[in-house]
Amino acid sequence: MAEVDQNHVVSAVRGVELMADSTNMLAIYLADGIKHGTIDNANGAIHLSATCRATRAQLYKSSKALPHFGLFTLVSSGKDRGSYGFEKEAMAKHVEYYVRYFGERFGQKLQVTLNLRKGYTDGSGFVDRMSARLQAIYPDVEWVVNKEATDNSYYKGLNFKISLNGQEFVDGGLVDWSQKLLGNPKERLCISGTGIDMQVMSDVPVLE
Predict the structure, then answer these.
(1) Which residues, listed in sequence order, are joined to residue 167 by a DSSP beta bridge?
(2) Average pLDDT score, the chain
(3) Alpha-carbon Rg of the chain, whole angstroms?
(4) Which long-range contacts (C-beta less than 8 Å, at least 24 apart) are formed by 171-175?
(5) Is 154 left (phi over 0), alpha (psi -120 to 50) or beta?
(6) Which of 21, 142, 191, 193 has CA atoms 20 to 30 A from the CA of 49?
(7) Which helix (H) or strand (E) segment is 191 a member of?
(8) Is residue 178 exposed (0-12), middle (13-18) or buried (19+ Cβ within 10 Å)?
């Protein structure tokens, strides 16, 4: 679903479960509920969160990048409402959570980077509208907008990253997983996550 290289996948025997990212799990849960009518995202976005221990197979160069770590994730599901209605609402909700959380934890100015990704017809215009919307809501955040479109197999349209003192804490954006799972191009999904261990190991001083 997320098109991950098989060289980065850890295989497990029957009865053993390894989780690389809980956003995938939440996306499948949402899609199953929408398909069977137990979840209704037609009249408003559905927002879920999860905390788990994740396992990654990559060999990281940084000693702070652990192969087994705590992960907190947010996932928002909705329908295309026109004029990027869902995208604006979901992105604002995700950014708001992290800005408030990290602002209270570290008490320092955050940097949010918006990266254009392929997947939306009017990519540049889409990023401009999203950027204007978010900057109006959070004027005290340092914003960086990267409008160089890259073919990213993970995110579609827009990817955001939140950093503090040059260290990245949050990665998120729009994905097409629910469209694939349900066969419905009107489905929309926004995901994001932050490493829990990274916050503890960070050099950024915690606000007392």
Answers:
(1) 164
(2) 85
(3) 17
(4) 172/74, 172/94, 173/115, 173/117, 174/87, 174/90, 174/91, 174/117, 174/119, 175/2, 175/27
(5) alpha
(6) 142
(7) strand 187-195
(8) buried
Q: 119 pLDDT band (50/70/90 cuts)?
A: confident
**Could you tell me the CATH number of the domain that includes residue 13?**
3.30.930.10
**Distance between CA atoms of residues 104 and 101, nearest Å:** 5
Determine the distance from the C-alpha atom of residue 63 to the mean position of all C-alpha atoms in its chain, rounded to a whole number.
24
What is the residue type of 70? Answer: G
Q: For residue 67, count other CB atoms closer than 10 A to its CB.
A: 12
In a domain, 139, yes or no: yes
* DSSP for residue 6: G
The residue assigned the tokens 């197979």 is: 57
Strand partners, 117: 150
- Give strand pairing partners of 47: 76
Residue ranges of the alpha helices (H) in 5-159?
22-35, 85-106, 123-137
- Asked whether 189 and 29 are in contact (CB, 8 A), the reply is no
The pLDDT, as a whole number, for residue 32 is 97
Full-model pTM: 0.85
Residue 91 covered by a domain: yes
Distances (CA, A) of 157 to 4, 108, 173: 19, 29, 8
